[in-house]
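Thread: "does anyone have the structure for this chain?"

Original post by V.I.:
We have the sequence but no experimental structure in hand. Need at least a predicted one for the grant figures.
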Amino acid sequence: MGRARAGKHGVGSSILSPRSIELSLMTWKIAADEWSEFLHKISLTRETLRCSWTSPWFRGHTNSADYKLLPGILRKQTDRDTSRIRRLTEQIEKLKPTIAVRKTDIAAIRKELTSEHRAGNSGLAKAVQASLAAKRQEMEQARKAANSAQSQIDKINLVPTGEREAFIEFSARAGQQFANSWEVLAEMQHCGVPTRLLDWSETLASALFFALRKYSERIDFVWAADKAKKTSGPFQRTPFEVLSAIGPLPVPSVWVLNPFRASEKTTERNRIWDISRQPEYDYFQRFVIDKSWDFEDPIPAFSPWRSPRMAAQQGTFVVWGRDRRPLDEILGSDYVAEVCLSEKAAIYGVFMLKHMLAIDHFSLFRDLDSLAESVTERYLK
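Reply from O.Q.:
Generated one for you, tokens below.
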């Protein structure tokens, strides 16, 4: 009587007593408090960014330390681009002193020319005049070469190697009718192709799903094992036991952006752009063909919700221009800020998303693969 049925469930895996469950729930209260503190920080961040009444945008990262607010195509510059930019930069640096010296030479020649004219030495004056013309021509050629090199650098920075080719092949083989090139680019982004778009969401829950993916994957494995033993539920283990079971993980975080202020800073318009409806800002024409994109800084833009996945995630985009730096470096802390989760807040957040809000892979991706994964996990594990 009262002995654990080790033969059926294994040593230490018997159903917990009510007192044990009560003690476990008491320790979960600590995790719940840290989760509440995280949500409080999100609220404070919204206040600081001045978007407590308007809708902020959220983005989740699994690793706060290593991840930067950069779109996929800019996270790893190709060796080809790097070497070309380095070569052109060296060329410009070599031309700069030449241009500066020629300016000094021209000033001296002009002074000599004036002196010869005053002395009445017309022959020498003509020779000095020819020398002045040669110096001017040399200086102009050097300036043109430097400007040409800088123009090439600007084009490389605007359109990284492979961006044009990836767009053309995807749009040709996707087998879909797209209204414009922005819809193609949005579809590429959601299918995993690196683009100049950075995903954001209008819902905190979507951002948390992506921020807590690594925690969710490991905790699901622990909970699946507990479920198979028919124990008392997710709270049968204390947060400390869960952390011990899943091992160390990077610090997850959620970024909060005030898109209206960011748009005003970049475009001088306090509204979110729907650039897919503005023909004069067609992506392929302005970036790839003409290389005439007007904006240096990134622009917050609405995403065309062509698929159930885009709508489920309530996705939005930030479109990168010529500045290749991370968004937080470009905009600063008055426009975008990061809020990190503690370990216990993270595991409690996984519980909230999975068991209370019913947010899983299928609820955000809405395809047959994610449906199959959800059904298998719910009924066949």
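V.I.: this helps a lot. The two ends are 31 Å apart (CA to CA).
O.Q.: and The chain has a mean pLDDT of 79.
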